[in-house]
Amino acid sequence: QVQLVESGGGLVQAGASLRLSCAASGRTFSRYVMGWFRQAPGKEREFVAAISWSGGNTYYADSVKGRFTIARDNAKNTVYLQMNSLKPEDTAVYYCAVDTDRASVVSWNRGNYDYWGQGTQVTVFS
Fold this sequence. Notes:
Layout: E1 2-7, E2 10-13, E3 18-26, E4 33-39, E5 46-51, E6 58-60, E7 68-73, E8 78-83, E9 92-99, E10 115-116, E11 120-125
C-alpha cells in the first residue's frame, strides 16, 4: 500500500510561482514512476508531468513545458512540482500519483497510475 499526501497549493497572482510537494509512505517509493495530474472544475483529470525512479527521465504536458519542473528526492520519499509563471488556466486541484508497474518508462496515461493523493488546490488569479 502507498499513501501520498500533497501540500503546497495556494492562491497566487498570475506570474507567481508555487512548489508542490508529495510525501509518500508505504511501499518502496524510490522504485517507481511518479506523476502529477490536475483537474479543473468541470474538466477531466489531465496529465501534467512524470518522473522516472532515478529522476533521469521526465515528461511534461505541452501546456506546462518550460514553466513547470518535476523532481524527486528518494531519500525523503518526496516528489516536487515547481511551477513558475503561473497562469489562470493552471487553476485546478493537483494530484500526485504512483505507477507501481514502471520504474524508468514514464507515462502520461492516468490509467497506469494506481495510487493517488487527495489533491491540493492551486488557484491563479489575473
